[in-house]
Design goal:
Strand order of the largest sheet of chain A: 1-2-3-5-4
CATH topology of the largest domain in chain A: Aminoglycoside 3'-phosphotransferase, Chain: A, domain 2
CATH architecture of the largest domain in chain A: Alpha-Beta Complex
CATH class of the largest domain in chain A: Alpha Beta
Distance between the termini of chain A: 43 Å
Oligomer: homodimer
Largest interface: A-B, 32 and 32 residues
Order of helices and strands of chain A: HEEEHEEHHHEEEEHEEHHH
CATH superfamily of the largest domain in chain A: Aminoglycoside phosphotransferase (APH), C-terminal lobe
Low-confidence stretches of chain A: none
Radius of gyration of chain A: 20 Å
Number of strands of chain A: 11
Number of domains of chain A: 2
Shape of chain A: globular
Helix content of chain A: 40-55%
Number of helices of chain A: 9
Structural class of chain A: alpha+beta
Largest sheet of chain A: 5 strands, antiparallel
Chain lengths: 313, 313
């Protein structure tokens, strides 16, 4: 489980005196997540998530918290940061930067169907439109610059066929230029486990700590590569079409986006193959969770390179 | 019912294109409320209230909407305004200033007990603390200046004993000076019907359109005069003590507040007696709801003038 920095009930009860959320009723560590320390917090007022930031640069935290606040007040069901009595979202607790956000209801789905993929697509579209008025800027921290750094670090650990695939894909991606695709804040990690459903509706999109500004289409490709798989790595046509139709019902794709789609699916696969290779071969000291198998995204990348019809009509 | 400005489903569906809240599922006029036009709005994303402002000066609306947004992001369960795609809370619809806010769950209670009065007191305390960092300013629009204007207008309609009581109370209040009581944004109209409960907890405080900056103690007096009555106009000791204890658990009263309490209860009774007299004798053209009986608050005022022990220990 992922509690790097323990917090006792007495410590939290005192800390909550900085907020207007009532008195502490319950505190429960959250096992999921590998980047931060998270607790469920219940008070006399409501249900919250407490996050102690273990790794993100303090200077970047306002980008994430203000983005969540921005999206929440536009009606996107994302965690809303709670401001303290000095009107700040970011506090300190036990020596770490810390924030309290609303806890959203619902559960993630292991096997979403076409209907749920359509819901996700529509929500992504709304999230992207709402994000366009957000004034903050942070380049996608897992974008092309990071790919090159990470590739250099993991390359020595790879067998020949893997390293050739990686080099070939980096070369292919470096030849792609998307200066005219619509851009804005993207979640960039909206996998099934970061999406909560309740009564068939999306009740929450969570974990914005990989967000950044990038092509909106990239966000969609990340989702398709997780939500629309069948038989391991291939895309399921029905769910992929449903997700894309959901998006396009809110914001129709531009011709440039349609042309960029196959390369974007590959970029999204590359990013997660790289981060999983990195976590696998170069785990951070004190990391408490087993790394995901990198091979899953290698297979997805190979499928996207091969695929003839990635369904964006 | 209070729909001064009708809105059709087609008009609203088009207008919601300015927002990130999904597509319109249902539209239902709200019968309660006498100041504005209100609709319940359900979309593919969630449940909202649409308000068309019929009477409030447009220049004052940002004070109310920004105050609700401020309190909501501090964890106070009040309606949160939804920002449109241009990042504005205030829009226009059918020629009226209009805003979309979240719809809160729960129901108001006719007969709250000591436990519920204690909950209300604690929530008021938290609301007042959260409001202290709100930078907006609007003088309580139903404060002493307005009392004098309203009294002048209703005086010709009053029998001798009523007009004598009114004159005597205005004179008494004009001799009170509270420059050193804690001040801040107050709801100023938090009657039972503006407070929603769900599972024994306060799930919503609504209708902030009489809010303004005033003594925090005044807000508490307004509540006590509605929540803690027995036999018509007198105060119930148990519920009054519970409400005040709830407040003081969050923010202990200062000695000056304790001294000011009896006069504040009278001020809060005077304000509602005056507004009800005004609505009764000088109804606004086109007003769709019968005025409340002014005598209820006349009896409350007389009781507060007489009372020896208004329970603030």
């Amino acid at each position: 489980m992922s509690v790097y920095t323990p917090v006792t009930e007495a410590e939290l009860a005192a800390w909550l005196g900085n907020y207007s959320v009532g008195t502490l009723a319950a505190l429960e560590p959250i096992k999921a997540g590998i980047e931060n320390t998270n607790y469920f917090v219940t008070t006399s007022q409501g249900r919250y998530v407490l996050t102690l930031f273990e790794r993100l640069p303090a200077a970047e935290l306002p980008f994430y918290l203000d983005l969540m606040a921005h999206l929440a007040r536009h009606g996107i069901p994302c965690p809303a940061p709670i401001a303290d009595l000095q009107d700040r979202y970011l506090q300190q607790l036990n020596g770490k930067p810390a924030a309290l956000v609303t806890r959203l209801p619902g559960r993630s789905l292991d096997a979403p169907g076409e209907r749920e993929c359509g819901e996700l697509g529509a929500l992504l579209g709304r999230l992207h439109l709402a994000g366009r008025s957000y004034p903050g800027y942070l380049e996608n921290p897992r974008g092309p610059k990071w790919w090159r750094i990470a590739a250099k670090e993991v390359m020595p650990f790879l067998k020949k066929d893997r390293s050739e695939l990686l080099e070939k894909e980096l070369r292919f991606q470096s030849e792609q230029r998307f200066p005219d695709l619509p851009r804005g804040p993207v979640h960039a990690d909206l996998f099934r486990d970061n999406t909560l459903f309740e009564k068939g509706r999306i009740s929450g999109v969570i974990d914005f700590y990989f967000a950044g500004v990038d092509c909106l289409l990239y966000d969609i490709a990340v989702c398709v590569n997780d939500w629309c798989l069948k038989d391991g790595a291939a895309l399921d046509a029905g769910r992929t079409r449903a997700l894309l139709a959901g998006c396009q019902g809110v914001r129709p794709f531009t011709p440039l986006e349609q042309a960029a789609w196959p390369a974007m699916l590959r970029a999204a696969a590359l990013r997660f193959w790289l981060s999983r290779l990195h976590d696998y071969h170069l785990p951070r000291a004190g990391m408490l969770v087993h790394a995901h198998d990198p091979e899953h995204f290698r297979r997805i990348l190979e499928d996207r390179v091969r695929a003839k019809a990635p369904w964006l009509a």
